Amino acid sequence: MRLLILADIHGQVSALDRLSALISAADLILIAGDLTEFGGSEDMTNMLSPLAGKEGRVAAVGGNCDKAMARDVLEAAGYSVDGRFKRFSGEPGTLTVVGAGGGQFRAGLTPFERRDGELHAAIEDAMRSLDESSEPHPLLMAISHTPPHGTDADLRNGSHVGSKALRHMMDALAPQAWVCGHIHESRSVSRTGKTLVINPGPLREGYYAEGQIHAIREGFLVEAELRKL
């Protein structure tokens, strides 16, 4: 399964247009928030236009810069995994994605900020619904705008600034991969425990990542590499 991993587009639809070949080729497109720059429904509709026809191949969450009206469009398009799960079929197996949108609460200065308990609850709600579905989920991935605490993806000026609640969920669930964004300067691919943590960097500045999922004897392996336009 071929992955295209994006975050922090901030209204730069031209950057998505430049990825058109990769968008067409990807089996799954993962977007970790901040599609707009404080935009509303029209802005989000514009941002999603390069993804037209990719229904069933996109999983995304809103970021702290995505207003409620913009997030409504993301949800209506069927792309949102905020507080829910989506399944994607392909080789080497069915991938389940859960998500938690929003930036970590600072001072309420941006449209979509959540306290740690709310971020935890979003993933918890998604997992509860998944467990109630009674279907197996051996291949599990999570998306959040805010990175989990204590990883290479949440470093700002040498300090870890990510969510401790999301880190708790990551350690408890041990998904094969966790995709995040928000901390632009912490562009990275690193492994924490059993989980590959991917912050592709801001697409606004031309950064993204590509990934692959392989079947191995122990189950599944996710690999990713950082790219630049």
Name the descriptors.
Purple Acid Phosphatase, chain A, domain 2; single chain; 229 residues; five-stranded mixed sheet; 6 helices; six-stranded mixed sheet; alpha/beta; 31% strand
Structure notes:
With about 230 residues, this protein is of the alpha/beta class. The chain has one domain (about 1-229): 4-Layer Sandwich (Purple Acid Phosphatase, chain A, domain 2), CATH 3.60.21.10. Helix content is about 25%, strand content about 30%. It has a 6-stranded mixed β-sheet with strand order 4-5-8-11-13-12, covered by helices on one side. Strands 3-2-1-14-15 form a 5-stranded mixed β-sheet. A two-stranded parallel sheet has the order 6-7. It is globular, with a radius of gyration of 16 Å. The model has no long low-confidence stretch (mean pLDDT about 95).
Summarize the structure.
The chain is of the alpha/beta class and 229 residues long. 24% of the residues lie in helices and 31% in strands.
For the CA atoms, what is the radius of gyration? 16 Å
What is the H-and-E element order? EHHEHEHEEEEHEEEHEEEEE
Q: Largest sheet, order of strands side by side? A: 4-5-8-11-13-12
Overall 3D shape: globular
Distance between the termini: 22 Å
* Fourth-tier CATH superfamily name: Metallo-dependent phosphatases
> How many β-strand runs?
15
Q: Give the amount of beta strand, in percent.
A: 25-35%
Structural class: alpha/beta
CATH architecture: 4-Layer Sandwich
CATH class: Alpha Beta
Helical segment count: 6
Q: From the structure provided, what is the oligomeric state, counting identical versus distinct chains?
A: single chain
Helix content: 10-25%
